[in-house]
Amino acid sequence: MHRVTTDQKLKKTKIARFKSCAMAAALTLFAASAGFGSIVEGVKFNQRVETEMGSLELRGAGLLRYMVFIKAYVGALYLPETVPSSAVLTDVPKHLVIEYFHAIDGEAFGPAAIKTMEKNIDGETLARLKPKIEYHNSLYKDVKPGDRYSLTYLPGQGTTLRLNGQFLGTVEGSDFAEAMFSVWLGAEPIGEDFKRAILGAG
Questions:
Q1: Exposed (0-12), middle (13-18) or buried (19+): which is 83, by Cβ within 10 Å?
Q2: Average pLDDT of the residues in 163-172
Q3: Residues 161, 27: contact at Cβ < 8 Å?
Q4: pLDDT of residue 66
Q5: Could you tell me if 145 and 100 are in contact, meaning their C-beta atoms sit under 8 angstroms apart?
Q6: Using CA of residue 86, residue 91, residue 95, residue 99, what is the dihedral sign?
Q7: Disulfide engineering: 182 pairs with which of 25, 86, 170, 186, CB 3.0-4.6 Å?
Q8: Of 129, 118, 124, 99, residue with least CA distance to 183
Q9: Are 60 and 184 in contact (CB under 8 A)?
Q10: What does the H/E/C string look like for 39-55?
Q11: Residue partners of 181: CB distance under 8 A and separation at least 6
Q12: 121: number of Cβ within 10 Å
């Protein structure tokens, strides 16, 4: 019968401890690289998000109030580190994530978005984009408190809508992306304070 010596036992114990420490270090490194970049109203947002076109860094995060007193939702905007905030509506990668504090019917999102788009996009462009806007609005589902919608635009691919990470659909075109993101980032956004906050100027 093969006999395991004391030295062999010690060697195995050291190897096991090394593997355990290495795993703990790897987990710590991962947690640091995916660390939280901002906390707004108790909601945490990561410092960066990964896309097919590389990393997008947190530009800013903030709270949107409805009728001054009602806390509607919090959101965060991600952009390439080298892109200035003034270029946010141009043909550059961007990611907006919003977490809701109240339940909202899916059918309510479309009309609210169009109302704000009309303040930021000319009528001719909106008419041309109507089929894309209607398709995008059909993707929305009901949300409950704590749910997250995200919009990710990648040049050449389009604007992707997700709910709690689940893919809902993609709409092509930089013109559609400009119209969609103008709801929060246009000249007359849904909330001026919210716009400044997610652009890192608030």
A1: middle
A2: 98
A3: no
A4: 85
A5: yes
A6: positive
A7: 186
A8: 118
A9: no
A10: EECCEEEECEEEECCEE
A11: 88, 89, 94, 96, 151, 153
A12: 20
164 Cβ contact partners less than 8 Å away, ≥ 6 residues apart:
147, 148
51, amino acid identity:
T
Q: Are 60 and 199 in contact (CB under 8 A)?
A: yes
pTM of the model: 0.81
pLDDT score, position 37? 83
Phi, psi (deg, nearest 5) at residue 155: -55, 135
Locate tokens 């995916």: which residue?
A: 34
Rounded distance, CA 91 to CA 88, Å?
Answer: 8
pLDDT, mean of residues 119-128:
97
Among candidate residues 85, 93, 83, the one with its CA nearest the CA of residue 50: 93
Under a CB-based contact definition with an 8 Å cutoff, are residues 139 and 163 in contact?
Answer: no
> 10 Å Cβ neighbour count for 63?
18
Residue 184: alpha-carbon gap to chain centroid: 13
CA distances in angstroms from 74 to 30, 32, 165, 183, 185, listed in the order given = 25, 23, 17, 15, 15
Task: Report which secondary-structure segment, H or E, holds 75.
Answer: strand 70-79
Q: For 12-69, how does the pLDDT look when each residue is reduced to its tens digit (9 = 90+)?
A: 443 344 333 333 333 322 333 346 689 999 999 999 999 999 999 999 999 999 877 8
Question: Does position 181 have pLDDT exceeding 60, yes or no?
Answer: yes
What residues are paired with 61 via a beta bridge? Answer: 76
Single-letter amino acid, residue 198: I
